[in-house]
Amino acid sequence: MSPIILTTHDLLVAALLIVAGAVLSRLLALDLQRLLLVSAVRMATQLALVGSILLSVFCQTSVWPTLGVLGVMFMAAAYEAGARQQTRLTPGWHFAIGGIATVTGTVMAALIGLLTALQPHPWYVARTAIPLTGLLLGNVMNATSLSMNTLLSTITRERQAIEARLILGATRARAMNGLIRQAIRSALLPTLNQMAAAGIITMPGIMTGQILAGMSPLDASKYQILLMSLIVSGNMTGATLAAGLTAWRLTDSRARLRLERLQSPISKTKSS
């Protein structure tokens, strides 16, 4: 089976669906029509631009174009991972922790996939390395963001209980372990739900795309299993690292809770 190539007419049909959604939003007074149209234009522009860039990068045999594209992706993901929380650490630490956790989880999972199962030659070939890394990066970024958001919110809300445990002699690791576990579980829950529902309730997007591109459904399912395993591994690493580093930053070696390292109304009030 040959791949299904979409034409300009097919894309116009997709555009009409977006316009119909905007009209429905206006009729129902949802006030989402402007956001929907702007988001659709941004999506189309960004994807067309990325497609054009990748078309030229895929023709290169050097590792440097691949590393350049991945570097831009990593910087954007590091920013996004740290930009979604209402309660934040001071800017340098906040974005550094989000970036370190996101990049570490992504790189670890991507290298495992490239060097074991996929084994492209060379291993850094752009056609394999960039799509795989991009897929993992988006998932790890979300897990990292959820982990940081859950932990920061919980620490802010339960600061008195944490300080009480520290006063009673608990080490900072023991005082924060329960909160760290809760943050990691919250970050991994969407991925675990996706895994449990795959194939029975939902047809995963990776598998659907490969089937539409002409791959055998059985072969597509094998790729889906591999990629979901890499996603879970990367998410676990990113969420754990983000929670651990955040908890470490908000305590010190003298077992004190350091809320002045937060940028939030609570920390400002406390410090004043």
Reconstruct the topology from this structure.
Blueprint: H1 8-27, H2 33-57, H3 63-82, E1 88-89, H4 91-118, H5 126-157, H6 159-167, H7 172-197, H8 205-212, H9 217-249, E2 262-263, H10 265-271
Antiparallel strand pairs: 1-2
Helix pairs in contact: 1-2, 3-4, 3-5, 4-5, 4-9, 5-7, 5-9, 7-9, 8-9
- Strand sequence of the main sheet, in spatial order? 1-2
Helix vs. strand class: mainly alpha
How much of the polypeptide forms β-strand, as a percent range? Answer: under 5%
**Mean pLDDT reading:** 86
Helix content: over 70%
Distance between the termini: 68 Å
Outline type: globular
Radius of gyration: 22 Å
Describe the sheet with the most strands: 2 strands, antiparallel
User: Unreliable runs, pLDDT <50, ≥5 residues?
Assistant: 264-272
Q: Number of DSSP helices?
A: 10
Number of strands: 2
Order of helices and strands: HHHEHHHHHHEH
Describe this entry's structure for a reader:
- It is a single chain.
- This protein is mainly alpha-helical and 272 residues long.
- Helix content is 76%, strand content 1%.
- α5 packs across α7 (172-197) and α8 runs antiparallel to α9.
- Mean pLDDT is 86; it is low at 264-272.
